[in-house]
């Protein structure tokens, strides 16, 4: 798998908390990524967009605000980084726009399950 996420799943208190996950890029080149959440009301992600050089890692901090306990899903979308790109958000958006007419999207995904529990 080109990107690995450790740990692959996480648990955070429904009352709120912070967990950190490491994304490792095993691709031969730099990738651009975006982290998406199934629950934007109770989760804050930092960073949402980023670059990871070949063979390097990036940390993603997931903050859960207080709310009812439930299972949520975070998805990390990634693609080869455009040559010379400096802004990951713009690089990701530009890549996505080029894919819109394509019948087979070339964007890859890694899912990350996050469960909340009563503390």
What's the quick description here?
With 119 residues, the protein is mainly beta. The chain contains one helix and nine strands.
What characteristics describe this protein?
single chain; 119 residues; mainly beta; 1 helix; 9 strands; 10% helix
3D architecture notes:
Strands 2-9-8-4-6 form a five-stranded mixed sheet, with helices on one face. Residues 98-109 have low confidence and may be disordered. The protein has one helix spanning 88-99; strands spanning 3-6, 9-13, 17-25, 31-37, 43-46, 49-52, 57-64, 71-80, 108-117. It has one helix and nine strands. The radius of gyration is 15 Å and the shape is elongated. It has 119 residues and is mainly beta.
Secondary structural class: mainly beta
Order of helices and strands: EEEEEEEEHE
How many β-strand stretches?
9
The percent range for strand residues is over 45%
- What integer is the average pLDDT? 80
How would you describe the oligomerization state of the chains in this entry? single chain
Helicity range = 10-25%
Q: Major beta sheet, specifics?
A: 5 strands, mixed
Question: Strand order across the biggest sheet?
Answer: 2-9-8-4-6
């Amino acid at each position: 798998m080109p990107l690995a996420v450790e740990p692959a799943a996480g648990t955070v208190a429904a009352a709120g908390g912070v967990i950190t996950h490491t994304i490792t890029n095993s691709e031969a080149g730099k990738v651009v990524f975006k982290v998406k959440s199934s629950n934007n009301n109770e989760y804050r992600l930092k960073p949402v967009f980023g670059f990871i050089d070949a063979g390097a890692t990036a940390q993603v901090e997931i903050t859960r605000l207080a709310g009812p306990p439930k299972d949520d899903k975070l998805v990390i979308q990634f693609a080869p980084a455009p040559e010379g790109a400096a802004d990951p958000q713009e690089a990701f958006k530009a890549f996505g726009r080029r894919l819109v007419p394509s019948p087979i999207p070339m964007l890859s995904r890694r899912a990350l399950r996050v469960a909340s529990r009563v503390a």
